[in-house]
Every structure is written in structure tokens, then in C-alpha cells.
Input
Amino acid sequence: MTLFDALEQVYNEAQAALESAMVSAELEAWYAAYLGRKGAVTLQTRAVGQLPKEERPVFGQRVNEVKQALEDAYAARAEAIKQAEMLHALESGAIDITLPGRPVTQGHLHLTTRTLRQIYDIFAMMGFEVFEAPDVELEAYNFDLLNIPDYHPARDMWDTFWVQTPPGEPRLLLRTHTSPGQIRAMRERSVNQEPLRVVLPGKCYRYEQITARSEHQFYQLEGLAVGRGITLTDLIGTMHQFAELFYGAGRKIRVRSSYFPFTEPSVEVDTQCILCGGKGCGVCKYTGWLEIAGAGMVHPVVLQNGGYDPAEWSGFAFGMGIERPSMMKYDVSDIRLYYGNDLRFLRQF
Ligand code: FA5
Output
């Protein structure tokens, strides 16, 4: 067989083989077998040296024609296979739009956060702005500047978690109540001798026994109004207004006298227990009432520590829990549920 015949034979073979290549892998194997470095057509070009000189150009031209024709056929086949494979992938991965969808689980705000936001809204309506103060507080702000010096027996009202500080450094603690924020807010505003009306929300910490009504961590919201001519009736009116807006019309609160070193006079605000309808239960200690806030007129010493002259300025302050009023509104009988992270509880709100 002449080289020319051999070339034509390889050409025919290659065309037939290309027709039967169905997938990319077969196509690549075909390319290597015919047009690759050691492919049958490539080897034909190297055989040109065996021909007499005069036949070489004709042979060379034919080899080039065959190579070009096969390259074109290869490209066309590759495109066809690519399209077929894409179509197959689309068909096999097709989404069945008739299947029912997977439900999207959606979280929601914690009951404490919801209660806090409702309470912010109520006090915002009454003209109070939110003021933030730190959780880790200086002893001076938590106690001394609130008229509770080191030796004062009233310090026993707040069992304290102390933060270790080097000897000689000011002592730090986890705030036991939000009242230290009173000093911070007053010192900021008294610079320009402006009146102020703020609420200070925050976590408080007490080294206390945990029960159905008491946690060792809980939220409080401090309220503070300082101005000229503010009286106790403003405080009582504010508490009534709060109760009406938070619980709805008709919910009773009562104000009874109490003692706090930083207010004079001091009161405590109770709300009727909804868990027992006022009849008495474990949560309200069988009184029918649950204490929700301590309050009073800001003590002159505290006003002075805040930068206001008590001869000219007066003010009221209150510190209310968040979980306890929330328990009364949403009929929750145990404060520990607020910190238990039990989804069966949380999902109800
Ligand atoms: C105080 O903390 C005062 N700082 C309140 C105050 C502020 C008085 C401004 C005068 C002027 P008391 O310890 O009573 O007071 O706490 C206030 C409220 O925080 C309570 O009425 C209650 O609602 C909530 N509370 C107190 N201790 C706990 C606790 N262990 N768990 C849950 N809530 C608590």
C-alpha cells in the first residue's frame, strides 16, 4: 500500500471513529489517537521523508487537508457533544416544581426583649429618652454616690458580685441595680444645667437565691426625671400611666412607703397579681400584689453628686424589674423560664 493509500485509509477510519464518539471522554481519546502527538495522522506527516522528492509536496498538501478536515470535524463533534451533555444535565437535575416546599423556620424576639421594647415605647410617649450605662460598674457609682457609703447597712440590700481588682485600684462590681446610671446621666446633663427625663435599661446581677420570683440576673429599667418643681405626684402619675398603658385599663397598682438611701421619700410600686387574680399565691407571697418597682424623690445628696443644686432642682426616680411586670402581663408563673431557653416556653410568645 502506498503512503497515499495509507493516508486515505487513516482518514476514513478517523471519520468513522469520530461518528461513534458519544461523550467527551471518547472524543478526547479520539483526538489523541488521530491528531495527538503520536496520533495516526501525525505519524503520516512524519513518513513524508520516505517519498521521492517530487511526490512530497503533493503528499504534504493532502496531509494538511486531511488534518484540517479532521480538526473541523472534531470541533463540530465537540460542540454537538457539549450541547447533548448540557441538555442531559439539565434534564436529570430538573426541579420538580410540584413538590411541596420546605418550611422556613423563623425565629422571633425573646419575651424579655419584647417586654423591654413595649416599655421603651410607653416611656418614649411620656418624653423619656433611653440612656445606656455599663454592666461592670465602679463601686462609687453603684453605692457611694447614691448615698450608700461603705459602712452603710443598706449595702446589705444588694448582695454583690465583685470583680477582682488590684489592691489600691477603684473597686469594680457587676451592677446590682440600674441606679448608678442616674449619676452618669445627671453628670452628663448637669454640665449645661438642663432638665432631664431618661430611662436606663440594663441587666443587673445579685448574689441571691434563685426562686420563682427572683433570679440572680434580671433586667431593670431605671427612670429619672430632674427639673424644677417636680413632685411625688408626678412620680405616682407616671406609674399609673405606665400601668394603664402596659397592662390595659383597669389594672390596679398600689404605692406604699419604703426606704432607699438614694430617695426621700421612698416608695414601692406593686401591681395586682394576675396569676391568682389578687387572691394570693406562691409568686405574690400570698398577698395578692407583686412588687414591680422601687421609687422615690431623688435624695438631695444624690442630686448634688449628679451636679444639680437641690435648692433649685428636684426629681423622681424609679427602678422597675422587666421580668416581673412581664410575668404579670403574660401570665408566667416562674421567672426562671425567662433564662431556661426552653423553646416550648419561648415559642408561646
Ligand atoms: C432597687 O434596685 C432600686 N435601685 C430601685 C430604685 C430606683 C428605688 C430608683 C428608688 C429609686 P429593688 O432591689 O427593690 O430596688 O429592685 C427593684 C425592682 O427590680 C423590683 O421591684 C423587681 O421588680 C426587680 N428585682 C429586684 N430583684 C430582683 C430579682 N432578684 N429577680 C428579678 N427581679 C428583681
Remarks:
- The mean pLDDT is 92.
- The domain at 111-346 is CATH 3.30.930.10 (BirA Bifunctional Protein; domain 2).
